[in-house]
Design a protein that fits this description.
Blueprint (H helix, E strand, L loop, with lengths): L12 H20 L14 H5 L11 H12 L21 H13 L10 H17 L7 E5 L2 H15 L4 H4 L10 E6 L4 H9 L7 E4 L9 H13 L3 E6 L13 H11 L2 E6 L23 E4 L1 H4 L7 E5 L3 H7 L30 H36 L3 E3 L7 E6 L7 H15 L5 E5 L2 E7 L7 H14 L2
Parallel strand pairs: 2-3, 2-4, 4-5, 5-6
Antiparallel strand pairs: 1-7, 6-7, 8-9, 9-11, 10-11
Bound molecules: pyridoxal-5'-phosphate.
């Protein structure tokens, strides 16, 4: 049918079907051939903008032409997070069933604000988060809620902690008051930058965030935390929240949550555990040792969109008492009042968003399709591959390990004899490999050393992909 004839209404269903099948084929081919693409997009800044019209089309276009432009214009500007040689930042990838979840979520297009507007989303979220809780061996009292990202999950946790501290900030705010002392949030010096952004967003300010020193293994030192809290109390400040991380971003180090929980209990401070990256591995029995003490937390964040093959975005905040979030955020406008509000859970009560995407569906698909065993097998394999890569580094006289590998992140650097400026050499190696499109590595700085980071987490990664990076590194250091 020509677009000329269509004045109102949606795309006709026969056309939708035709392009729908085409798109599924397109995605299947994309996944099948993913490692033939350059990992990092090779375009220059503004290439896409320069190739797109400056204003919207007046008349509707043939959808076949739109899809052709995906190949011609969009694809070259894509950095392929699903590529098995994407090892930068944290390697995250979607599974195919995760894509199905997104398709149906878009089709339903429900806004999970009230149970009434979205019973399926509300109840599936409860069920699937309880499945995940059980898989991670967390106690029954933890109840979860889905947000988009860990940054937002943690912001909600700190807001709840702030409300619990008893200054009626929800009602009175923080400005223009002389009865609110400096409220303190504590985290290690390796904490993710999202925590800095949370305290900015919540009006606590960067001055509220006290970063605690780490040991040689990049883990928070509990004695330093206790001393900092004591000193702050003596100064009239009020500690409101401590945020240890299991799986820090730079090195995947593990803060001693159990010892930190003792301190939080002693001082009555909210304990929020950031396991955005590594939390998924709590489903693997032999990795549970890293999570000791997290069952004592007030809140925990874990991101299935990082390492549970669920497409971005899906972050889970588990709370010991979910009502703490409600105390901080619930506010029911007249037009949102329903007769069943005493008996049902309304998602809008637990955060700043009114409408919430039906994200639970994709996680439900992923857990049902792979099963607990299938998910465990994949996480174990990633950790095995990371340890294998680390063993190559350890055995080579030209490379050095710079941090332990508790999960699937390897921190290392090239150190061939006779090179004076190792920082410059490693930066050059990383930039050359990334520019080649063959693999993507990222970096951090540890004790002043430019450190290469190789993260293993793609659902499509195999040993041959790591061998390829190892060959690239050995070729590049010469
Ligand atoms: N916390 C940790 C430990 C992370 O590694 C990250 C991201 O890598 C975040 C928080 C932020 O995650 P998000 O992008 O979901 O906000």
């Amino acid at each position: 049918m020509s677009n000329e004839a269509i004045k109102t209404g949606d795309m006709p269903s026969d056309e939708f079907r035709k392009y729908g099948y085409e798109i599924v084929d397109w995605i299947a081919n994309y996944f099948e051939h993913i490692d033939e693409y350059p990992v990092l997009s090779q375009v220059e800044p503004n290439w896409l903008k320069d190739n797109l019209p400056a204003s919207a089309p007046e008349k509707g276009e043939d959808f076949g032409d739109v899809l052709a432009d995906v190949d011609k214009l969009i694809l070259p500007a894509v950095t392929h997070w699903n590529h098995p040689n994407f090892h930068g930042l944290f390697s995250t990838s979607t599974s195919s069933v995760g894509v199905f979840g997104e398709m149906l979520t878009a089709a339903f297009d429900m806004k999970g604000m009230l149970w009434r507007t979205s019973p399926a989303s509300t109840e599936l979220e409860d069920v699937v988060l309880d499945w995940l809780r059980q898989m991670m061996d967390l106690p029954e009292h933890f109840e979860g809620i889905i947000y988009d990202t860990a940054s937002v999950s943690t912001m909600h946790a700190i807001a709840a902690a702030r409300e619990k501290a008893g200054f009626s900030i929800r009602e009175k705010g923080m400005s223009g008051r002389d009865d609110v002392p400096l409220l303190r949030v504590y985290a290690s010096e390796h904490v993710h930058s999202s925590i800095d952004k949370c305290v900015i967003t919540l009006g606590l300010g960067l001055a509220s965030l006290r970063k605690i020193e780490c040991n040689d293994l990049f883990e928070m030192i509990p004695e330093k935390l206790a001393a900092a809290i004591n000193e702050d109390i003596e100064n009239g400040f009020v500690p409101i929240c401590v945020i240890p991380t299991v799986g820090t971003t730079s090195t995947s180090s593990v803060d001693p949550v159990d010892a930190i929980a003792d301190i939080c209990e002693k001082y009555g401070v909210w304990l929020h555990v950031d396991t955005a990256y590594a939390g998924s591995t709590a489903i693997v029995p032999e990795f549970r040792q890293h999570f000791k003490g997290w069952e004592r937390a007030d809140s925990i964040v874990v991101n299935p969109h990082k390492w549970l093959f669920t497409p971005f975005d899906l972050s889970v905040l588990y709370c010991k008492k979910l009502n703490d979030l409600k105390d901080a955020f619930s506010l029911v406008a007249e037009y949102l009042k329903t007769s069943d509000e005493q008996t049902v859970k309304n998602g809008m009560d637990y955060g700043i968003q009114l409408g919430r995407r039906f994200r639970a569906l994709k996680l439900w698909f992923v857990i049902r399709y792979f099963g607990r065993e299938g998910l465990i097998a994949r996480l174990r394999e990633h950790c095995r591959l990371a340890r294998l890569f680390a063993s190559w580094v350890e055995e080579s006289p030209d490379f050095d390990m710079l941090a332990p590998v508790p999960f699937a992140l390897v921190c290392f650097r090239a150190c061939p004899a006779g090179v004076e400026d190792l920082n410059a050499l490693n930066e050059e190696i990383m930039n050359d490999i990334n520019a080649s499109g063959d693999a993507y590595l990222s970096h951090t700085k540890l004790n002043g050393k430019f450190t290469l980071r190789l993260s293993v987490g793609s659902i499509r990664v195999e040993e041959k992909h790591l061998r390829k990076v190892w060959d690239l590194l050995n070729a590049a250091r010469k």
